[in-house]
Design goal:
Oligomer: single chain
Distance between the termini: 49 Å
Structural class: alpha/beta
Largest sheet: 5 strands, parallel
Strand order of the largest sheet: 2-1-3-4-5
Order of helices and strands: EHEEHEHEHHHHHHHHHHHHH
Radius of gyration: 22 Å
Amino acid sequence: MNASAKPAAKRRLLLASDRSDESSELASILKAVGDVSTVTTEAIPAQPARDLSGLVVDINLRSPESVQRVRNKLRGDAYRSMPRLFVLADALHHGTMQAWALGATDTISRPLQPEAILQRIRAAFPDTAAYDATDRGKTLNRGVEAAHAVLVRMFEKMPLGVSLTFDDVIAAESKILKAIKHSSLREWLTTVGCHHVGSYRHCLFVTGFAVAFAQHLGMREDDQRRLTRAALLHDVGKAFVPAALLDKPGKLTDEEMEEVRQHPRRGYEALAAQGGFPPEMLDVVLHHHEFLDGSGYPNGLSSNQISDIVRLTTIVDIYAALVEKRAYRMPFTHSRAFTMMEGMGGKLDQQLLQAFRPVALGSF
């Protein structure tokens, strides 16, 4: 074999740009992880190539003409299931919101930081040129079905004395991670949002947001798996709370609220008694309603007593609850939900919340 031969590229990326003078640097960075084709926004094809991993858009988001051209190109369904990374001139609010409105699934900001960009690409874009885009729907469905199977055991079998094992969760996690990586968070939320049982839907929402957040942060694969398991099982204790309380359309009485607040401890006790579940999963199940200022429950933990995996799960748990339709209210918009969480101040890890912003606002 010729020593100078280049290995086959793992990804094929399309860089659409109206600023060729500035995009050459970006194209050079992207070539570290795949083959890059650069076109003007006017030349974005109506249908993406079957082996295309993702689209990178680098335009002046303050130019009405550029924005309209991209909007016209991405208006249909052709690119909807594909990762779409938009490049911002800066991190200002206007550019960010304009990118999300155009269908961005993620954003990066200038000045360009090569390692951070490559980390985003590796996390969000399919990593094999052999991946067939027509399989995205099947991959998504397999992930949702795997997660749903765990929830059936959790909510329907455990109260009857049938054990949920750690192996049951392990069997589902790879399919869940693959489903969100190879489709999109938006597609996951749309699919699971049709579920008629509120507790199932919430756990599926939390799992989707948690996985997308982990991939956005560029977490290692084993850390993504740990977070996936914890998010999926975080509300296991609700299996031991009467469904009539969980689905009550009106305000809960003080006694009913106290009953619902028992779910973290009941879930923890059930999994601890079963055995085989790692400490970080039990930590999330017991403490996902704790707040940094000590006002949460069941143990009133504060500050450094609350682990990173719990802080992250708490953020996605609250956000998912706000953007879901509940028996007693309509869902909040994504922007309103995020603003409400910013208003919670010291209760949440605000630095981590800001890191969640692109995931949260890019999911609708």
